[in-house]
Amino acid sequence: MRLYFVKGGKRIWLSGWLQTVGFPIIASPLLISYFHDRKTEGPNTKLVLMKYPLFIAAAVIGLLTSIGNYLYAYGMARLPVSTSSIIIASQLAFTAVFAFLLVKQKFVAYSVNAIVLLAVGARVLAMHISSDRPKGESTKMYVLGFLMTLAAAALYGLILPVVELMYLKTKQG
């Protein structure tokens, strides 16, 4: 995985865009569809076919997702896969906390049990790792990768409750 990323993070932004929406690949069919509709239906064709509050919320969630993907890709470039997967496993705890705070999701025995079991499973994967830091990686870059991966886990944990809140507020789901 480290071979894919350019040292210094110069191509990580492309990975974040591609992971999020397939940008710029998906832009072409959408533009073709819009111009086709405009040609057949006239100049009053709407660019956005959903309600604007929902569109704004979806755009914000998309932006948060792309930021999370960038943070995760940068962290993966600086950390070994085992370490980053353990950090990303903390997303479960972030999701549970944000769901509790934002959408008033209750903690029940099943959800607590699932979080504990998945966290223990991630910790078992981390056992017997001899060296954590990749060779040639400075302490500063390693810590930065660790913090960015942790921020990605927190952001991923925030996104799902925000999507549910968005649907509740816009009465779409």
TrEMBL record:
Subcellular location, record wording: Membrane
Membrane topology: Multi-pass membrane protein
Entry GO terms, CC: membrane
Sorted UniProt keywords: Membrane, Transmembrane, Transmembrane helix, Transport
Stretches assigned to coiled coil: none
Transmembrane segments: 12-32, 52-72, 79-101, 107-129, 141-163
Entries under InterPro entries matching the protein: EmrE-like, PUP_plant
One Gene Ontology MF term: purine nucleobase transmembrane transporter activity
Family indicated by similarity: Belongs to the purine permeases (TC 2.A.7.14) family.
Protein name: Uncharacterized protein
Species of provenance: Coffea canephora
